[in-house]
Specification:
alpha+beta; 5-stranded antiparallel sheet; Glycosyltransferase; 13 helices; about 15% strand
């Protein structure tokens, strides 16, 4: 056990995979590994076995590495080529190993290509790192690694998904998630707006054409039956701000309109004008639809009029009104403005808790506020719902050290809430929520506070990158424990991947890219 704890605390966790940037990936049989210390663990298509290098890899690329005098690179989705010393340990069924001289191939069974043994390794290695090198980000090793990680998240079209798509992590999640994809596009847009567009197109690929429903998760051969925060117009506008491509907006405007109508039809259970997340029966994931899986908000497993769902929806309405104006659809513009105004007003009437100065979940059956103060309560700032007076009270909460002014703001749950913990959405700080809150604060003129939250967020990302060489799923709001020691849907368990904060996590890296690149653009 002591050895395993040491192993879990080693620098690493970077995922190692072939990217759609360089060719065709394979969701079913493509190789995926992760680097821990001087080991490359093989995780997909089968978990088990590892490659032991003589030195700890010190490269920052997601598909090629340098470990002392040994180098490795993906030749294609199925074959890893290694030049130099390597010790394949306990390769399980499903993998094959072929060696010739100082060259080794590790491949998925049935996909070994021995021709790679005679290929020019330098060409393979250099071609894998060329994409990142061409971006000229040498001044920032953290940014370089974030971009390299983003590259590894890209999958090629396959099955139901007709466009290049992203995943939160190539292992263990593997699949495509709705709001993750949008946040990934925010970072990707600074590198390649066409590719950023394509990753949103992929989300629409799994839309139900008959109903407008978009699932929270899709794969090449299936889709889930719940949705996730409506943020697609938000992502579309962010890309448009850089490329001005109105054709892309025009193409997907009606499809996002259908999705938003699905939300109203299917997620306003009481018909009183506010949306409620679907509640599941799983104790460690009561509300995967909200994206805040195990939040204390959902412990009682009852339907709640939710400030985050309605804030996302109202923001989408506002953006859709902008799109309608750009597309010369005056009646649609009137409709969306009216809808945004109505939802904002309804939030102010029902979800604003004057006692606490925050938006709260509301139980439509008991007609009572939830006692849980959460970071979701700040999200109406993005939709323009609060009056200036209400916004000032929300800011006061963000500056209250007993509530949300944590050393690393903004905790997902108020610090003094009963049941607060360091478990996922039950207390820790999340990058995506922080940056949304910061955007909302800036909209209300609280630029200094917005910049403070953003700066502290980036500092935490950089601090733990320096220590572990990777980007984590979430961080300790109290800044007392490193991410590797936080809980996840139960006590931290180094033997169970889903019970430890994930490393090389998608939106942490891509939103870091977005923040850095926006700052660069603004400085020119």
């Amino acid at each position: 056990m002591q050895q395993m704890k040491k192993y879990a605390s080693l620098k690493g966790g970077q995922l190692f995979a072939f990217s759609a940037v360089d060719g065709t990936t394979d969701w079913y049989n493509g190789l995926v590994g992760r680097i821990i210390g001087n080991c490359l663990e093989l995780k997909l298509p089968h978990d088990g076995g590892c490659l032991l290098f003589p030195d700890t890899p010190d490269g920052i690329y997601s598909d090629c590495l340098v470990a002392g005098h040994t180098r490795a690179a993906f030749a294609d989705a199925f074959n890893i080529i290694i030049e130099g010393d390597v010790l394949p340990l306990g390769l399980p069924a499903g993998y094959v190993c072929k060696q010739a001289g100082n060259t080794t191939i590790i491949a998925a069974e049935g996909h070994l290509n021995t021709a790679w043994l005679n290929a020019d390794f330098n060409d393979i290695f250099n071609s894998r790192k060329q994409w990142l090198d061409n971006l000229h980000l040498e001044a920032s090793p953290v940014l370089r690694r974030a971009v390299s990680q983003l590259k590894s998240q890209l999958n090629s079209p396959q099955g139901l998904i007709k466009h290049k798509w992203t995943t939160p992590d190539r292992w263990p999640h593997r699949n495509m998630w709705l709001w993750d994809s949008v946040f990934h596009a925010l970072g990707l847009r600074h590198i390649d707006t066409c590719l950023a567009q394509e990753t949103l197109r992929a989300v629409f690929d799994v839309q139900d054409a008959a109903t407008g429903f978009i699932p929270h998760m899709g794969t090449p051969d299936g889709r889930s039956n719940i949705t996730q925060p409506p943020v697609l117009a938000y992502g579309m506008r962010k890309i448009w701000e850089l490329d001005g491509d109105l054709d892309f907006i025009a193409e997907f405007y009606p499809r996002n309109k259908a999705f938003l109508e699905w939300c109203v039809t299917n997620r306003d259970q009481d018909g009183e004008g506010l949306l409620e997340w679907f509640i599941d029966g799983q104790p460690f994931c009561r509300c995967g639809e909200s994206g805040m899986d195990n939040s204390i908000r959902f412990d009682e497993a009852v339907l709640l009029d939710a400030p985050d769902f309605n804030a996302f929806y109202a923001q989408e309405c506002g953006i859709m009104a902008q799109f309608a104006r750009m597309l010369n659809l005056p009646q649609d513009e009137i409709f969306w403005i009216s809808r945004q105004t109505a939802v904002n007003q309804r939030m102010n009437e029902r979800l604003w808790d004057e006692k606490h100065g925050l938006y709260c979940d509301f139980n439509p059956k008991t007609r009572e506020f939830s006692p849980v103060l959460s970071a979701a309560g700040f999200l109406p700032l993005i939709s323009g719902a609060p009056t200036p007076e209400m916004a000032s009270k929300m800011v006061a909460l963000l500056q209250d050290s007993n509530k949300f002014a944590a050393p690393l703001p903004v905790p997902s749950i108020a610090l003094d809430a009963p049941g607060w913990s360091r478990d996922m959405w039950r207390g820790p700080t999340w990058v995506n929520i922080n940056l949304l809150i910061a955007e909302g604060l800036a909209n209300y003129g609280y630029s200094s506070l917005a910049e403070e939250i953003t700066a502290k967020t980036c500092h935490a990302i950089e601090k733990y990158f320096d220590r572990y060489g990777t980007f984590f799923e979430y961080y300790d709001a109290l800044e007392q424990l490193p991410p590797v020691k936080l809980d996840r849907k139960g006590p931290n368990d180094i033997f169970k991947v889903y019970q430890q904060p994930l490393r090389d996590y998608g939106w942490t890296a891509t939103l870091y890219i977005d923040t850095c690149m926006k700052n660069r653009r603004q400085s020119f």
